[in-house]
Design goal:
The protein has 126 residues and is mainly beta. It contains no helices and 11 strands. A hairpin with a 4-residue loop joins strand 7 and strand 8. It is globular, with a radius of gyration of 13 Å. The model has no long low-confidence stretch (mean pLDDT 96).
Length: 126
């Protein structure tokens, strides 16, 4: 069982930055692929970024490429999402997600992630 707790959301002006954190419990974190997803009101939950077990491979949605960076610190059981040059369309609830098995690839599909956090709100004002 893995529990995920996101933090770091808030209100920021367009062009600003935020760093989200996702603290994970469980001994398997260091071998688990992690992802960030987001859901805006009235929209489907969409992929944002993903990272493999050791941080050697990362993937991004086209809409955030070049602005967002996903990283992880396995010693702290934490994955991060650094968000720069934020836009109003980035406004959403951001969710951290974990795959269930060791050394699985970090895919951009919701259905491959077993564990989810409760989400943290990010609001970007224009």
């Amino acid at each position: 069982q893995v529990q995920l707790v996101e933090s770091g959301g808030g209100l920021v002006q367009a062009g600003g930055s935020l760093r989200l954190s996702c603290a994970a419990s469980g001994r398997t974190f260091s071998s688990t692929a992690m992802g960030w997803f987001r859901q805006a009101p009235g929209k489907e939950r969409e992929f944002v970024a993903a990272i493999n077990w050791n941080g050697g491979s990362t993937y991004y949605a086209d809409s955030v490429k070049g602005r967002f960076t996903i990283s992880r610190d396995n010693a702290k059981n934490t994955v991060y999402l650094q968000m720069n040059s934020l836009k109003p369309e980035d406004t959403a609830v951001y969710y951290c997600a974990a795959r269930s098995g060791p050394y699985e690839p970090p895919l951009p599909y919701r259905y491959v992630y077993t564990y989810w956090g409760q989400g943290t709100q990010v609001t970007v004002s224009s």
